[in-house]
Sequence to fold (539 residues):
Amino acid sequence: MFLACASFLTVGCSNDDDEPIVNPEPPVVDLNSYVCPSYDDNYLSVSTWDARKQWNLANVHDPSVVKAADGYYYMYQTDASYGNAHQSDLRNSGKHGHFFCRRSKDLVNWEFMGRTMVGLPSWIKPKLNEIRKQMGLEERPDSYFANDLDFGYWAPCVRKVSDNLYRMYYSITCPGTIDGDGTWSERAFIGLMETTDPASNKWEDKGFVITNASDKGLEYRVSQTDYNNCYFKYNAIDPSYIITPEGQHWLIYGSWHSGFAAVELDPTTGKTKAELPKPFGTAEDIAPYGKQIFTRDKTSRWQGSEAPEVIYHDGYYYLFVAYDALDVPYNTRVLRSKNVDGPYDTMDGAVTDAAKGAGNNPTVLTHPYKFGEGSGWVGISHCAVFDDGEGNWFYASQQRMPDGVPGIASSNAIMMGGVRSIKWMSNGWPAVMPERYGAVPQETIAESELAGTWEHIDLSYSYGKQRTATELVLGGDHTVTKGTWAGASWSYDANTGTLTIGQQEMKVQREVDWEASPRKVTIVYTGLNGNKSYWGKKK
Fold:
């Protein structure tokens, strides 16, 4: 695991096994004494459930991160692990609970704290059967709910409401199809849990919040391939919860079906502010289920976009979106608006209201990529975006190894959590750093350190393909002598950490070179250009 020059141990809360947790306090180090994280990205040797306390950021999927009043960052996630290790312990009937938690003081060392939900919430059965009865369908029998592992536990979103109140919105998908083979899948639910203390890892379920809404009425019989006429308008998964500066509470949710909806919440209860009618009928009937704020393709009910994450920064609401399939092509886009419920526009100005169709115009922030060494990473999206309260912002997501990495069985199933720094460009838009955050001391970067050879990646969108590095040389005479922008001049503002190459603005930062063996500290850059990003790493 991570080694540093010093650490101080404190005894914390109990985990899912009721054992005391030993928590390393982040050491105070300077650049000369800094030691890079040493844990292996190939975590097969510790992939079993019994080794979970050694996972660190192994087996992270769809993370949500919140900084709590106790100074810890708490991360929560979708139920997922290599080989389904979280389901494999027969001593406990394969049930270890759901929405696992881990926490960290430094965003590098993470301790596994176990489940936040024991089993299927009791409200699921009556709510599902209530809606099925409204639809004129038979109720689901008790046997349908007998195994909670038949249900999907997806994409929790956790936020601090106050120092003594934290809310988790979670998604549960029901197995099977609405009315047998050849029909649309059974519905999903978003529920709510609360805690006064994340360190306790004890959450109280508050029940139903919202479900799939459809303006197709009861015409639920659709072909398995007729995606454009699918039953649901909004899919009730992937919630994002935000409290505006004015004190309004909003839920933004949706996945694949039509896009995302924004619905206002009651600040006291955390439930929808408007009373919810039956979740089917005309567009007017289902209006309380939310206002559409984003769709990738206005003409399609089935599209490769999911996982909205909304944050507020410096006068704008930023909407982060996951595009495409999660195994390899997954990539992250960003839009923004002056209003939490839109209209959201793109940085390149091609889209001024994403509810009418964003296409591929939102700026690519992360994408499958590969530097010169190592296998690179794919499937980098479904992000959490959060800050430390001191002006520093971060992006956390899953990332997968590519298929066919030598010596690693099912390498694309290796899911490592990736925390990266966000830098805000002079135009107000966020850019994500290429290398994962390693808590490297940020001593001022001198201009002379930037001259030399870099690995440069153009993150132009290319479905399912890793963008690979090319060589870029910044000459000591302040000209680019090789690679992209060859012949252009470059300059550096140490006060703002801004490298300018020609007309292109980059933000630089010291980070870990995770591909080097042994790992070392290097300098990286990130920049935005229309609907793409640039990434670079100093050799």
